[in-house]
């Protein structure tokens, strides 16, 4: 009993200890934050001037986030985590606007990085899905800006469109474009350009072949919507936007959109290429009357983009692919040979007052028709479109035009090389190469037109001869320049030739007509630390319509020789192939006509202009027919002549003229062969 009392006495707890301390939950800093702040604010005296712990913590969070945003490439996930912590202390309504905008630009990787990563995923057969995460972040930040009573700026929406353009999210881009209009912001060329980039990039991404027609129609419809909106709002066209629109319209060969784009961007009406668009006359007629009443000054047309050679080749390629030969030839002739501009309409219709031939306003500034000098690509594109349509006459004509211009250019260059240094010589723009002559050769071979085959074969042989002469001449000229010290050989130009110098149009694409040459290239911009819309990343979209033309390239003799040597090899290969095709086509034609003659049927003779029957002997003499026995006899005679010309070191063996070969010269064999049309052989 006593021991039990002692044990209880020892296990007894002192009254001063509190049992709750063993189960106390650790204190949290955020739980008593608000009561402490209220208590401190309610204090009187000097303690009221001190900041509350919550304010100190808020300032620390803001300072940490600003320091993180000041880095060049901070971690997007870290930026987003700090932003969420700041929202817990401040709330979306009290966070400064500049922090929202900074986080909007740093909560996702740069567009160039996203696009490169997405391309690698697609090449590996995977799909890039992180863009949906970044899209949700953008949506939350935009909502936070609106909940604070502010309106997102146009550059904020551009940041979102930049990501959509990098991943090809065309539906999201069009939704953002519609939202920009709802909030009342003024769209600029960069806004439409980013949407066009998203549309172009979507066409390059893989899609199930059964779903591609619907996708192409949807993208084309969005493109036409953007072009119509730009035309209605009077938004100036940027070169990048026009290029992107061309890429989309080429997928469906939409002539309506192409015509509208040429008219609004370059001021060229394909219906009347040699005059200003009729829409301009209607728009400026009233303005001209007002100006005339005020100060008598002339009204000028809206400033358009300069019509460059690259634009000209793109227009020719579009018309050639569409198969509209009339517009193709008309555009080529009017642009390369423009009519002289006049200040007023001609007086040829002055007597016909009852007829109206359009609006004529002398106060309107004269229209300056665009003019460019065609190059090799221009003629190659034109000949491809003409030959695909099967126009032999136009094909002959433009080959002769190209040869005449190339001969004149080569003559001037050869003459200038005698007296001028190489840095003062202009680079040649035209060359008769294999790619230029190949469409005509293909047309002749496809139609089995022996006359056109013979004609183009002669031009191929002449081009080979001209190239050999040019290589010999420029090699000696280069040696003379090096010896005189006016020319110093530069680096090797093999690397320049690897990029296929002179080919500025796309070749045949993969399964679709959408070429890889038209891959959007605007995602290489880095995220800017400032949010000015006129930053350097917007240079491509804010380029002025009035810009300097490309300067004339100077003559590089080393590069020119390399090009001539490469073209000579291609032409020699084409020449050998053309000889084989011409011989085969000629032989088949003679055999076909010979069968009609041997069957006593009539054939058409061009010299008399009608169909008639011919004796076998006359036909053989006119078409240079030789029987098989005659061909073998001629070959034997040639071999005998070569044998007699060889140097003899002893008595040569007698030439055997008996045997099976001699049996073919018997009278019976000849008569039998005369009864049927012999096999033909083209005389060498």
UniProtKB/TrEMBL annotation:
<feature type="compositionally biased region" description="Basic and acidic residues">
    <location>
        <begin position="671"/>
        <end position="684"/>
    </location>
</feature>
<feature type="region of interest" description="Disordered">
    <location>
        <begin position="499"/>
        <end position="537"/>
    </location>
</feature>
<feature type="compositionally biased region" description="Low complexity">
    <location>
        <begin position="506"/>
        <end position="531"/>
    </location>
</feature>
<protein>
    <submittedName>
        <fullName>Uncharacterized protein</fullName>
    </submittedName>
</protein>
<comment type="subunit">
    <text>Binds to mitochondrial small subunit 15S rRNA.</text>
</comment>
<feature type="compositionally biased region" description="Basic and acidic residues">
    <location>
        <begin position="634"/>
        <end position="647"/>
    </location>
</feature>
<keyword id="KW-0677">Repeat</keyword>
<comment type="function">
    <text>Regulates mitochondrial small subunit maturation by controlling 15S rRNA 5'-end processing. Localizes to the 5' precursor of the 15S rRNA in a position that is subsequently occupied by mS47 in the mature yeast mtSSU. Uses structure and sequence-specific RNA recognition, binding to a single-stranded region of the precursor and specifically recognizing bases -6 to -1. The exchange of Ccm1 for mS47 is coupled to the irreversible removal of precursor rRNA that is accompanied by conformational changes of the mitoribosomal proteins uS5m and mS26.</text>
</comment>
<dbReference type="InterPro" id="IPR011990">
    <property type="entry name" value="TPR-like_helical_dom_sf"/>
</dbReference>
<comment type="similarity">
    <text>Belongs to the CCM1 family.</text>
</comment>
<feature type="region of interest" description="Disordered">
    <location>
        <begin position="634"/>
        <end position="684"/>
    </location>
</feature>
């Amino acid at each position: 009993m006593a021991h039990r009392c002692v044990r209880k006495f020892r296990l007894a707890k002192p009254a001063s200890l509190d049992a709750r301390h063993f189960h106390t939950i650790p204190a949290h800093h955020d739980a008593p934050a608000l009561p402490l702040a209220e208590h401190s604010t309610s204090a009187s005296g000097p303690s009221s001037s001190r900041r509350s712990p919550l304010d100190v913590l808020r300032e620390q969070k803001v300072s940490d986030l600003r320091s993180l945003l000041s880095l060049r490439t901070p971690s997007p996930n870290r930026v987003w985590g700090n932003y969420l912590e700041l929202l817990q202390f401040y709330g979306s309504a009290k966070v400064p606007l500049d922090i929202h905008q900074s986080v909007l630009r740093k909560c996702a990787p740069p567009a160039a990085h996203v696009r490169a990563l997405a391309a690698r995923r697609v090449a590996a057969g995977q799909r890039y899905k992180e863009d949906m995460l970044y899209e949700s972040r953008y949506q939350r930040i935009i909502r936070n800006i609106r909940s604070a009573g502010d309106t997102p700026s146009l550059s904020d929406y551009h940041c979102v469109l930049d990501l959509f353009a990098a991943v090809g999210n065309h539906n999201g881009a069009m939704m953002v474009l519609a939202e920009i209009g709802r909030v009342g912001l003024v769209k600029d060329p960069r806004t439409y350009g980013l949407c066009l980039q998203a549309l172009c990039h979507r066409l390059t991404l893989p899609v199930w072949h059964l779903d591609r027609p619907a996708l192409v129609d949807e993208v084309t419809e969005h493109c036409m919507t953007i072009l119509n909106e730009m035309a209605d709002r009077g938004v100036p066209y940027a070169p990048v936007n026009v290029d992107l629109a061309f890429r989309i319209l080429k997928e469906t060969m939409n002539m309506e959109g192409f015509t509208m784009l040429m008219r609004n961007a370059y001021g060229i009406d394909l219906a009347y290429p040699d005059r200003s668009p009729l829409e301009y006359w209607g728009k400026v007629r009233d303005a001209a009357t007002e100006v005339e009443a005020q100060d008598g000054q002339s009204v000028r047309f809206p400033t358009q983009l300069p019509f460059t050679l690259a634009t000209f080749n793109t227009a020719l390629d579009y018309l050639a692919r569409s198969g509209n030969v009339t517009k193709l030839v008309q555009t080529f002739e009017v642009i390369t040979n423009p009519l002289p501009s006049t200040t007023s309409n001609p007086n040829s219709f002055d007597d016909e007052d009852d007829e109206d031939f359009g609006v004529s306003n002398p106060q309107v500034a004269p229209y300056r028709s665009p003019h460019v000098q065609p190059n090799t690509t221009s003629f190659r594109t034109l000949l491809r479109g003409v030959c695909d349509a099967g126009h032999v006459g136009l094909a002959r004509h433009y080959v002769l035009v190209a040869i005449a211009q190339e001969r004149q250019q080569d003559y001037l260059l050869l003459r200038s090389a005698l007296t001028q240094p190489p840095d003062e010589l202009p680079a040649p723009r035209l060359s008769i190469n294999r790619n230029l002559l190949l469409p005509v050769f293909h047309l002749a071979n496809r139609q089995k037109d022996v006359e056109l085959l013979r004609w183009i074969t002669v031009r191929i042989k002449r081009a080979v001869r001209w190239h050999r002469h040019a290589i010999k001449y420029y090699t000696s000229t280069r040696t003379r320049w090096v010896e005189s010290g006016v020319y110093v050989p530069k680096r090797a130009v093999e690397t320049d030739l690897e990029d296929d110098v002179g080919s500025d149009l796309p070749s045949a694409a993969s399964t679709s007509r959408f070429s890889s040459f038209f891959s959007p290239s605007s995602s290489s911009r880095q995220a800017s630390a400032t949010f000015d819309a006129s930053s350097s990343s917007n240079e491509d979209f804010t380029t002025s319509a009035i810009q300097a033309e490309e300067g004339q390239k100077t003559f590089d003799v080393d590069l020119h020789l390399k090009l001539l040597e490469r073209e000579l090899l291609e032409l020699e290969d084409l020449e050998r192939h053309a000889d084989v095709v011409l011989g085969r086509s000629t032989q088949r034609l003679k055999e076909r006509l010979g069968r009609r003659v041997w069957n006593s049927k009539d054939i058409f003779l061009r010299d008399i202009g009608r169909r008639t029957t011919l004796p076998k002997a006359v036909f053989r003499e006119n078409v240079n027919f030789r029987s098989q026995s005659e061909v073998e006899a001629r070959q034997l005679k040639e071999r005998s002549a070569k044998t007699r010309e060889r140097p003899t070191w002893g008595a040569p063996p007698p030439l055997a003229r008996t045997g099976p070969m001699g049996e073919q010269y018997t009278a019976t064999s000849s008569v039998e062969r005369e009864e049927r049309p012999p096999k033909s052989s083209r005389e060498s």
